[in-house]
Design brief:
Elements lengths: L11 H11 L3 E3 L6 E3 L1 H20 L3 E2 L5 E3 H4 L3 H7 L5 E4 L2 E3 L6 E3 L4 E8 L4 H11 L8 E10 L13 E11 L2 H21 L6 E4 L11 E8 L5 E11 L1 H5 L3 E3 L5 E3 L1 E8 L1 H10 L16 E5 L4 H20 L4 E3 L7 H10 L4 E5 L1 H6 L1 E6 L5 E5 L3 H26 L1 E3 L3 H10 L3 E5 L4 H11 L2 E6 L4 E5 L6 E9 L3
Parallel strand pairs: 3-9, 17-18, 17-19, 22-23
Antiparallel strand pairs: 1-2, 4-8, 5-8, 6-7, 9-10, 10-16, 11-12, 11-24, 12-13, 13-16, 14-15, 19-20, 20-21, 23-26, 24-26, 25-26
The chain binds one RNA strand of 78 nucleotides through strand 13, strand 16, helix 10 and helix 11.
Length: about 500
RNA sequence: CGGGGUGUAGCGCAGCCCGGUUAGCGCAUCUGGUUUGGGACCAGAGGGUCGCAGGUUCGAAUCCUGCCACCCCGACCA
């Protein structure tokens, strides 16, 4: 049998790459650093979008759309913000091409130079706050709770499909509030939504926390994140929520009159998740047989494969299969009945396994005779034969089981790979030889964080929200520390 | 931008060191037939600017020079 996939334990990076391309999720584009998201991969994104959008709307948010181009001058209005993004911005300088006289191609028309260059958005705080300035006068105009689904561009040196590309898809929420407390509450509400989504839909256990000063979003007072552990022991930031304080309100002069008639700057938040989550989904659950997708995000939840010796049988099987399919669809389950004749059942088994379809039903002559169906689950590869009349109830239950099992498996993996350690020797040993999450004391200084990063490539993924206070000594400097923080090598 | 590597059919590769008929193999594709309970088999067919440009030579995928592209490792980052 031809090898489809690089072994996960031999070369994790190559395994991931093989999965993404061979499962038809995405491919590299001719444009360096950009990817083509193929229909199967995009379908996962659409499922994520649909669920998140529902959750945003349920908490009072509305969608809007702001331009992809940002005047260059906007970016420099918030000092930290420029510093964070200036190095990776694509810039539009002209608005017209013309035919080249010498060759057959086109050249930039030098006559068509823009008065002010436009930046392709790396994120939209500036262009949005420029609008909010006009929308907000009084506390009655607040809060503004807007989200946008968009693409952004950050010119990356090295890219990897889904995990880091120069252009990516995401949603960015941008909210404006009358008080500091309300804005902080919003920031926390959104990180809770992300965490809820990750755990209950992606089946991905996450650690909620906030970023150290070093890792914080450019322009934020505080950045919250959810951090997930991948199967190679590296952590991945799956979502962020920022409390922006009054930084952008001040930069764009957005003031409002409060209930007492006093003028004050508006409080802001922003939060986002991106197509990167698809990378997290893949790396957290999949195995050497291919993708493993949680039922709640799988584009196809059930595949039905007929096995027939002749056309007579084929039509009898088809009758049973279509009935099952229709019944499942009526219960809101997405089903594919694959009766193509150009591939054998064996080929289809392997193929759908590779693509991570959670449940497979097979119907052959034996089943026809016994009024049964073979049902197989992708997560454990277990098979059983059940009576036809039980299929729908069985599938519904099985999809829930699989969702829960994938989550528990990921949770157990994380628990088995989370280390509470107290010495530098242990720290370096685990980083070098084991990987995983390390909970350790840190003295709270940027210098120590930098030193640790330089010596081990480990960074502070986050300072977990629920980590309890305890006396300890910084593993690096030995200085006193009040709580453990989460260290890991990360994506 | 530093260090390493690779460009030959849609994909994966051999051939290059040591120049010599019509450039080959596996997968995929197409046609016909037999098959179908874990990647089926037989027969036939189509598909190539050998990364680009120049040079050496009677003759270049192969040797020489220059260029380009992509990949991996580092610096940057979600």
């Amino acid at each position: 049998m031809a090898k489809l996939l690089t072994n996960r334990d031999d070369n994790y990076a190559q395994w991931y790459n093989d999965l993404v391309t061979k499962a038809d999720l995405a491919e590299n584009s001719v444009v360096r650093g950009c990817m083509v998201i193929k229909p199967y991969g995009y379908a996962i994104w659409e499922k994520m979008q649909a669920q998140l959008d529902k959750m945003f709307k349920a908490t009072g948010h509305v969608n809007a759309y702001f331009p992809i181009f940002i005047p260059k001058s906007f970016l420099s209005k918030e000092a930290k913000h420029v510093e964070g993004f200036a190095k990776e911005c694509a810039v539009v300088t002209h608005y017209r091409l013309k035919k080249d006289e010498k060759s057959d191609g086109v050249v930039i028309d030098p006559e068509a130079k823009l008065e002010e260059e436009l930046i392709v958005r790396p994120t939209s705080e500036t262009i949005i706050w420029n609008s909010y300035k006009n929308w907000i006068q009084s506390y009655r105009d607040l809060p503004i709770l807007i989200n946008q689904w968009a693409n952004v561009v950050r010119w990356e040196m090295r890219t990897r499909l889904f995990l880091r590309t120069s252009e990516f898809l995401w949603q960015e929420g941008h909210t404006a509030h009358a008080s500091r407390e309300e804005a902080i509450q919003e920031t926390e509400k959104m990180i809770d939504i992300y965490s809820d989504f990750a755990e209950n839909y992606m089946a991905l256990p996450v650690i909620k926390g906030y970023k150290s000063e070093n890792e914080r979003f450019a322009g934020a007072i505080n950045t919250y994140s959810i951090e997930a552990l991948m199967q190679d022991g590296k952590s991945l930031q799956a979502g962020t929520s920022h409390f922006l304080g009054q930084n952008f309100a001040k930069a764009f002069d957005v003031q409002f009159t409060d209930k007492n008639g006093k003028l004050d700057y508006v409080w802001a938040t922003s939060w986002g998740v991106s197509t990167r989550m698809i990378g997290a989904l893949i790396m957290a659950h999949s195995d050497n047989n291919g993708l493993i997708l949680p039922p709640k995000l799988a584009p196809v939840q059930v595949v039905i494969i007929p096995i027939s010796k002749n056309t007579q049988q084929a039509s009898e099987i088809s009758e049973v299969a279509v009935k099952i399919k229709d019944d499942l669809i009526s219960k809101g389950i997405s089903v594919r009945y694959d009766d193509r004749e150009n591939n054998t059942p064996g080929w289809k088994f392997t193929n759908y396994e590779f693509k991570g379809v959670p449940v497979r039903l097979a119907i052959g002559p034996r089943d026809l005779q016994n009024k049964t169906v073979e049902i197989a689950r992708r997560d454990t590869l277990a098979k059983e034969t059940i009576p036809v009349q039980d299929v729908t109830t069985h599938v519904i239950k099985l999809l829930d089981d699989i969702q829960a099992n994938i989550y528990n498996k990921a949770l157990n993996f994380r628990n088995d790979n989370t280390w509470y350690i107290n010495s530098w020797e242990e720290f370096t040993d685990i980083i070098e030889n084991r990987g995983g999450f390390i909970m350790a004391h840190w003295d709270g200084t940027v210098e120590t964080e930098e030193k640790i990063k330089q010596e081990t490539k480990a960074t502070i993924s986050c300072i977990p929200i629920d980590s309890k206070e305890e006396e300890g000594k910084c593993i690096y400097s030995g200085k006193p520390s009040k709580r453990r923080v989460l260290f890991a090598r990360s994506y």
